[in-house]
Specification:
Blueprint (H helix, E strand, L loop, with lengths): L21 H9 L7 H9 L3 H5 L14 H4 L2 H16 L10 H7 L8 E5 L7 H4 L7 E5 L7 H12 L5 E7 L3 H8 L11 H11 L3 H19 L1 H8 L4 E7 L6 E4 L1
Parallel strand pairs: 1-2, 1-3, 3-4
Antiparallel strand pairs: 4-5
Helix pairs in contact: 9-10, 10-11, 11-12
Bound molecules: zinc ion.
């Protein structure tokens, strides 16, 4: 297999993502300057031996240092990597199965460098890595019913940004969300379930009780909360190291749509 483009690649640590100039990469590929297997390249990048693999090809300068590529992605590239993965998921063309999970596991035992944080609902129909066609070590996933930014969730997200270096933070609402439905109904429920309501209530008020509208408003509100309430998030945004986005996952189509 020829050297692939970053659009084709779902592995943030891959060599292709180390190139800021996608056009140059494309030109090299078109010129058939190198022919490395994807798996070989991934293995080399993850084991920090890309320079060795590329020795003599004239492309040594492209070799990333060990496992640095994820945290050096731009926020825009990190978001695009997520969205490209969702496109593959929707088209039923996932590639994460091609990854050598044994190598990924081995190289993430000591440390992790996920490129994205996702705050999603705990709903069993929203398996985050699967719907973004990602695997071990790539996404720092925070899940709680209603994808709400509680103080503990904010703390977890701050860890992902400040310590692990995630470059995009996505709040992901989804269709048919039980937590939003329950907040709209606002009926008596057992235990502490109703403690979720107060976080979702502003969205319900904003959308007038419409389920889809409330769910999308909730994702936007939680994203705004993160941007404005966390000094860690605010500083990363100010430095251009992070983007915070809200998105909506449609259970029927499998598609993730960014919310403006
Ligand atoms: Zn839900």
């Amino acid at each position: 297999m020829s050297l692939h483009s970053s659009e084709e690649c779902r592995v943030a640590a891959c060599l292709c993502h180390a190139r800021a100039d996608a056009g140059e990469l494309r030109a090299m590929r078109d010129a058939n300057a190198i022919n490395l297997s994807r798996r070989g390249l991934l293995r080399a990048a993850l084991t920090g031996t890309a320079a060795g693999v590329l020795a003599g090809t004239g492309l040594e300068v492209l070799a990333p240092t060990a496992a640095r590529a994820q945290s050096t992605l731009s926020p825009a590239a990190a978001l695009q990597t997520l969205m490209d993965g969702n496109k593959r998921f929707v088209e039923r063309k996932p590639t994460h199965f091609e990854e050598d999970l044994a190598i990924l596991k081995q190289n993430t035992v000591e440390k992790q460098e996920p490129f994205a944080s996702v705050l999603s609902c705990a709903d069993s129909r929203v398996p985050v890595e699967l719907l973004f066609d990602q695997s071990i070590g790539h996404v720092f996933v925070n899940r709680v019913a209603g994808n709400i930014a509680t103080s503990e969730i904010i703390a977890s997200i701050e860890y992902g940004i400040a310590v692990l270096g995630t470059r995009v933070m996505m709040v992901l609402g989804h269709s048919s969300c039980g937590a939003v439905k329950a907040s709209i109904a606002a009926k008596a429920v057992p235990g502490q379930i109703s403690s979720l309501y107060r976080y979702i209530r502003p969205a319900v008020d904003e959308a007038g009780g419409d389920l889809v509208g409330s769910t999308k408003a909730n994702a936007r509100i939680q994203a705004k909360l993160l941007r404005e309430s966390s000094p860690v998030v605010a500083a990363a945004l100010k430095d251009g190291k992070l983007d915070v986005v809200a998105a909506y996952y449609d259970l029927a189509s499998g598609k993730v749509s960014l919310l403006g």
